[in-house]
Design a protein that fits this description.
The complex is a heterodimer of chains A (246) and B (212). Chain A is built from 13 helices and no strands. With 246 residues, chain A is mainly α. Chain A folds into two domains: 2-53, no CATH class; 94-123 and 145-177 and 184-245, no CATH class. With 212 residues, chain B is mostly helical. In chain B, 64% of the residues lie in helices and 0% in strands. Chain B has helices at residues 6-17, 21-43, 46-63, 73-92, 134-145, 149-160, 165-172, 176-196, 203-211. Classes of the chains: A mainly alpha (246), B mainly alpha (212). The interface between A and B is large, with 52 and 65 residues.
């Protein structure tokens, strides 16, 4: 009774004509149709309308639509475009590899960025976890080393300044006799020991811009943010490209 | 119109993609009747349909780089054709037909006015037996032209060209559910249209029903 109250929808009738009803729909359909005169008539109407449309004859083409091969203004631009587009299409494989690489690198950059930002936010990571410590320690070493050679070369170029040092003044004759054999590393070590004794290494970093100093939380935060921005740009570019290809 | 082997078609397409007009023209020869008839049934005028069909093939040749192998070339071509036809229709019919009662879209209210009362037994309705005269052809053609464009495309591709729902979905870039719904609504509108013009249904129609 309930099934009879709900007449079949036009969509069901139409889909039935094309055998597009799902098996579940079909069983409901059959059950209702068998007992509903009205839906049988509606189905017959729809079938008739479809049959009439289908009976429209296929007409012969009034003329051929082939494109003239010498169709200069029309055909030239497509061929020229084809010539330029083709290599691009052939490169599509390479482009997708490049795209994948950029995506991967961007994702890695994002992960690194998060690590940096986290280590900048949570100060305990700097002392507690080894990861943050190892990243900051070599960086600090680099900072030291980058400043030392300049000092060492400065010393080597100006022996007179070296002479002002208390050690150098004592060994001045030896220093003048063998300026070559003493390589810059040893002088650098000397300089380090000198500066080390005079000024602690922790004082040196503040001379750099704070955003480059990785031993400081601000530095790691800044680097993290920079990496994050780069990662987002990379991901956005590859995503947009992928959409365009489709 | 012989059947085009799938490999041959793929070859012709790739040659067309490198700018070979002659290769493309073989595809034109193969598909031009289908394309012309779809456009004709959508627009209803032979001269216009010929022009739009020509535009369709020019547009297809220009855009053939964007055709991706593996999908149906016919569906791709039909998409261009139906888009061209819809564009033309919108250009020339700025004002949609207001004469059509919007209530006609929902046909459930017209349950009493049944078209099949004109036919004694619906079982005997066999599409192949219809031989429409000129008047009835024109009547049905006008009925198609009263359909909204999305329903018209779906009905023409399904009931005139006999495409599957999957092919229609590919051609119109819609879902199967949308295709099913558009076809059903278009057919219902057509049925109501035919019923409203039942007094115009010419002799061939009655002759057919009388014959049963």
């Amino acid at each position: 009774m309930a099934q009879q109250d709900e007449h079949l929808t036009t969509e069901q009738l139409s889909a039935f004509l094309d055998k597009q009803l799902s098996p579940a729909e079909r069983s409901v359909f059959d059950a209702h149709l068998a007992s509903c005169q009205q839906c049988q008539s509606r189905l017959a109407d729809l079938r008739l309308a479809v049959a009439l449309v289908h009976a429209l004859p296929q007409e012969e083409v009034p003329r051929s639509f082939v494109l003239p091969s010498r169709l200069a203004p029309v055909a030239e631009s497509p061929t020229r475009r084809a010539a330029t587009v083709r290599p691009v299409l052939q490169q599509r494989g390479r482009v997708s590899v490049l795209q994948r690489t950029v995506r991967t690198v961007s994702a890695l950059a994002a992960v690194l960025a998060l690590i940096f930002i986290l280590s900048g936010i949570v100060p305990s990571i700097q002392f507690g976890s080894g990861g943050a410590a190892t990243t900051s320690a070599p960086a600090a070493g680099q900072v030291n080393r980058s400043s030392e050679p300049s000092a060492a070369s400065h010393n080597a170029n100006t022996p007179h300044v070296q002479a002002t040092n208390q050690f150098a003044s004592a060994h001045e004759p030896a220093g003048t006799k063998t300026p070559r054999p003493t390589p810059t590393p040893t002088s650098a070590v000397k300089a380090q020991s000198n500066t080390g004794s005079r000024t602690p290494p922790t004082v040196q970093p503040p001379a750099l811009p704070p955003f480059l100093d990785l031993s400081q939380p601000e530095g790691r935060l800044a680097l993290g943010a920079l990496l994050l921005v780069l990662a987002i740009i990379g991901l956005l570019i590859t995503r947009r490209r992928r959409g365009a290809v489709y | 119109m012989g059947e085009l082997l799938r490999e041959d078609e793929a070859l012709l397409i790739s040659r067309s993609q490198s700018g070979d007009v002659n290769a493309f023209n073989q595809l034109v020869l193969h598909y031009q009747q289908t394309i012309y008839n779809v456009i004709l049934r959508m627009l209803g005028d032979r001269d216009t349909a010929a022009d739009v069909a020509q535009d369709t093939f020019i547009a297809a040749f220009r855009a053939i780089q964007s055709f991706r192998g593996g999908s149906s070339f016919r569906a791709w071509l039909l998409r261009i054709a139906s888009n061209q036809a819809c564009d033309h229709w919108r250009r020339t019919h700025r004002h949609p037909i207001d004469s059509l009662d919007s209530a006609m879209d929902e046909d459930e209210a017209h349950g009493a006015s049944l078209l099949s009362t004109l036919v004694t037994t619906e079982q005997a309705v066999n599409p192949e037996e219809f031989l429409l005269n000129q008047e009835l052809q024109e009547l049905i053609q006008r009925g198609l032209q009263e359909l909204p464009l999305d329903q018209r495309v779906a009905v023409v591709l399904c009931d005139v060209q006999g495409l599957t729902y999957e092919e229609i979905a590919a051609s119109t870039q819609t879902s199967l559910g949308t295709v099913r719904s558009r076809i059903a609504r278009g057919r219902a509108r057509l049925r109501d249209y035919l019923y409203r013009h039942r007094e115009l249904l010419p002799h061939s129609y009655r002759l057919l029903t009388d014959r049963e």
